[in-house]
Design goal:
CATH architecture: Alpha-Beta Barrel
Bound molecules: coproporphyrinogen III
Radius of gyration: 19 Å
CATH topology: TIM Barrel
Number of strands: 11
Largest sheet: 7 strands, parallel
């Protein structure tokens, strides 16, 4: 195995000493980069880009060519899993994701099968291997999945939603059905993440984008419990090294204490929670990842530097912080502002270690 030249990100996740705070950006390979838009045009569409391991590798590396990021993230999407479960994923231009066959009835749930990642999702696994080889040990590669609850939200709604009427309707009216669906989805996510680790992912992250729309008791029963089920089934070591696990519930600030008990190594934090409060809630049991408001990148490089300084001060001294945005970078951000963000983290964080 090629030695890892920069392991700052893995060390911070495991709360081992580092010289500076490592940084990456959610959605770092994406539409704000003109070179991404060019490769996507070459591929034909977003899904064709995801299904072409060479091109998926090319876009994964693009942000690393521009900025000295401390991690790469697999270029793919969380919705590849429900697609492999037979739902028929498609992206309508400018409209976000849709499924041809949403899951609404007992018969729909019964039909759902747990996919074999090396079969229906082989294109993702080939992308992982290709990217890991191309990285040549530069920085670690992050694999990822959606949380069972977040995937079920898209599967039941059939697209993005404002009101969550179908998924919450099922949750309150037929909790038994939703539990069956979440269990199948959790099994799919577990084997999908383990297959990514077997192919070379060096850390894994679960995106629970929609856990934060739930009441606390419902969050514990329908989102957190299934993330815990996934974590309990994960491969935690590869090549003699621990594979850190990051859990991110958007808008989940009030549950960070519970989330820290799942056996994860780190928690993603969005900008609605102060890192000092988050650190108190988790009591240094796990590392924290976040949490600059992505819209800060619309401001001037001087403002961005100041905002980075405030987030660093809020976390305070010591390891256990991975700098990130609190959610994905938006498509209309000036890439020079992303550069200012990364540079500020590297420069200003040394004083904290
Ligand atoms: O972070 C990265 O660079 C890795 C790639 C990645 C993508 N999606 C690429 C993508 C990751 C980790 C995701 C996760 C994802 N996908 C989530 C969880 C994180 C979050 O944002 O909350 C969710 C909910 C999805 C589902 C999804 N995929 C939506 C709602 C959309 C459309 C929204 C939009 O921004 O237009 C996508 C499409 C998508 N996934 C794009 C990218 C780069 C844009 C597609 C394009 O190129 O047109």
């Amino acid at each position: 195995m090629t030695p890892l030249l920069n392991d700052t990100f893995l060390r911070a996740l495991l709360r081992q000493p580092v010289d500076y705070t490592p940084v990456w950006m959610m959605r770092q390979a994406g539409r704000y980069l003109p070179e991404y838009r060019a490769t996507r045009a070459k591929a034909g569409s977003f899904m064709e880009l995801c299904k072409n391991p060479e091109l998926a590798c090319e876009v994964t590396l693009q942000p690393l060519e521009r900025f000295p990021l401390d991690a790469a993230i697999l270029f793919s999407d969380i919705l590849t899993v429900p697609d492999a479960m037979g739902l028929g994923l498609y992206f309508a231009e400018g409209e976000g994701p849709h499924f041809e066959r949403p899951v609404r009835t007992a018969a729909d749930v019964a039909k759902i099968a747990v996919p074999d990642p090396e079969d229906e999702l082989k294109y993702v696994m080939d992308a992982v291997s290709t990217i890991r080889t191309a990285l040549a040990g530069r920085v670690p590669l992050i694999g990822f999945s959606g949380s069972p609850w977040t995937l079920a939200t898209y599967m039941v709604e059939g697209s993005g939603t404002k009101n969550f009427s179908h998924i919450k309707g099922m949750m309150f009216d037929r909790p038994d059905l939703l539990h069956t669906l979440l269990d199948k989805t959790a099994q799919s996510v577990t084997s999908y993440l383990n297959a990514q680790v077997a192919r070379g992912a060096q850390a894994v992250m679960i995106f629970d984008t929609w856990g934060g729309v739930l009441a606390p008791a419902n969050y514990r029963e329908f989102s957190l419990a299934y993330m815990q089920q996934v974590i309990e089934g994960l491969t935690r070591e590869a090549d003699g090294r621990k594979v850190p696990m990051i859990l991110f519930t958007k808008n989940g600030g009030q549950w960070l204490g519970d989330m820290a008990n799942t056996g994860c190594d780190a928690l993603g934090v969005d900008w609605t929670t102060d890192l000092a409060d988050a650190r108190r809630m988790v009591d240094d049991r796990v590392a924290l990842q976040g949490n600059l408001d992505p819209c800060s990148l619309y401001a001037s490089p001087e403002y961005i530097r100041d905002a980075v300084a405030k987030v660093l001060a809020s976390y305070g001294h010591g390891t256990g912080h991975v700098f990130n945005l609190g959610h994905g970078i938006t498509p209309d951000v000036n890439p020079d502002h992303a550069a200012a963000f990364v540079a500020a983290v590297h420069e200003l964080s040394r004083a904290y270690h």
